[in-house]
Every structure is written in C-alpha cells, then in structure tokens.
Design goal:
With 67 residues, the chain is an alpha+beta fold. It is built from two helices and three strands, in the order αβαββ.
Amino acid sequence: MPKGGNSNFDRRANHLLRLLQLCGGCVPLHSLQFQVSNSVIQTLLDREVVQVQNTGCGFLLEIAEDC
C-alpha cells in the first residue's frame, strides 16, 4: 500500500480518537456511520484502543479503559 494511503488512514483513526475524547470518551455508534469508515473503527477495535458497549437502546463506541 502506498505510504500516503496509510498516513491518511492513520489521520482518520487519530481524528476518531480525538472526537471520542472531546465527546467525553464515548459516542453512539450510529452517529459515526457517515463520518468514519468501518475499517477505521474495526482497526481500532482490533488494536483494543476502543470498545463497543451495548446499552440496551443502542451501541456506544468508547475509548478502552486501558488507554
């Protein structure tokens, strides 16, 4: 993969983490559908940087407590 594509991906992942921090550490997952690609969210989940919580009324994407 070209280096420019990887840095763009990293930028989008960092943007998502900053968004989570600004929103108090969690956001409803459905609110991110048009702003962030699923591959960015999945990569952060795989790296255990974020986690998904089922609230019973929906799902929250939140920063993992270990970070």
